[in-house]
Specification:
It is built from twelve helices and 16 strands. The protein is an alpha+beta fold and 418 residues long. Helix 1 crosses helix 3, helix 1 crosses helix 12 and helix 3 packs across helix 12.
Amino acid sequence: MWNDLRIDGERLWQRLDELGEIGALPGGGVCRLALSDEDRLGRERVMGWMQELGLEIHQDAIGNVFGLRPGQQPGPPVMTGSHIDTVRTGGLYDGNLGVLAGLEVVQTLNQAGIETRRPLCVAFFTNEEGARFAPDMMGSLVYVGGMPLEQALSTRGIDGESVADCLTRIGAVGQRPVGRPEAHAFVELHVEQGPVLEQQGITIGAVEQVQGISWSEYRFDGCSNHAGTTPMSLRRDAAHGAVATAAYVRQRVEQAGGHQVGTVGRMAFTPDLINVVPLSASMTVDLRNTDDGVLRQVEEDVERFARQVAEEEGLAFGRRSLARFEPVDFDPEVVGLVETTARRLGYSVRRMPSGAGHDAQMLARVCPTAMIFVPSVGGISHNIEEYTAPEDIAAGANVLLQVLLELCQSPDVPRENP
C-alpha cells in the first residue's frame, strides 16, 4: 500500500551534503550565484542524478530544468521542485531541499515499483534568489509567462553581465519554449527561513499564502565637496538622503505593524572616501506584507519621505522598481491536503504564511499550488549557519511524497468536503 511508503532520510541528507560541496564557503555555507560557474557545476550534479533516476530531462530558454517521470496516462504532470542558486553567503537547505526531496520521492517510487497515473516532474528554476539578477523568481516568472523572455535575457546583474550571455557561457540555454506551462498541480517543500515552527515546537507548516514583495532602488545625487571646509548648512550631501531614508524605513515599518517588514540591504556612496562629502548614494529598499493595501501605503510613504529629504538637502532623486509581486493565496484544497497528510503521518502541523518569496507563488498563476515548510533552527536563513535537523527534513519529504502520490493517483485535485 503506497500510504505506508516512506523516503530514505539518510540518502536525502547525503545528497544535500554533496550538493553543498559545490561553491562551499570556509566555515560552512555555500555560494552559488545564479548562472555562475558554481551554478553550472550544481546544475550538472543535479541533472546527473536525474539521469541516474531515469528521468526525461528538458531545459527551457531561460535555463529552467525539468526531470519528467512518465505516468500511466499522458497529460500535464504533477510538479515539485525549487531552486539550487544561492545568495553569496547561503546555506545548504534553502531551495536545494525542495529539488533534492523531489528526486528522493522519484527514487522511492522507482524502488517500490510504483507507476503513477499522472506524470511526475521535478524542476529547478533559474535565478530564484535574485541576488545577482533582479527580479527574484525570474526563471519561474518567465516560465509562467509573467515576464517576457527578451526582458529577462537582457537583464544585467550586479557585475554588469547579462542573463543571456551567462546562460550561453554555462551552456544552460534550452530548447523548450516558455510562457505556456502545463501542470496539474505544484507542491514545493522548503525550509521555513523563520522562527515560528521551531518556537512553537511544530514539525510541518502548511503554507497558505506568500507575502507581497516590493524591491526598489533609490538614488540621491548631490555635490562632492571637502569634508572639513564645507559648512553643514551649505552641503548637498547624498549620503544624508540615503541614511535618513533608511532610518525612516525602519520607523514606518514598525508603525505599520502586523506582517509588514522592511530592509535596506545595499547602500553605496561615491566617491566613498572618508574626507569627502558624497556626490551620490544608492540604496535598495525591500518591503513585504501579506496585505497588499498596507504594502502599497508603506511604499508610497517611504518614497514620499525620500523625495522630501532630497528636496530639503538640494539633491536630485530617482527611484527604480526592481521587482513587485502582489501577495499570493495558495489553493485551499492542496493546502488542506498538506495539512491532513501531515496529521495522518503523525506530525504536528499548523497553517501559516510565508515571509519569503518562492517559485511556488509563480506556479500558483497556472495551477493549484501549495507549499510545505519544515523548521529552520534559530529562524536563520541566507546565512552559512542555516540548519534544519535531519528528522525534520525527512518529515517534510515524507509529507511531500504522500501529497504528490495523492495528486498523481487521483483523477483530479482532491477537494475538501463541503
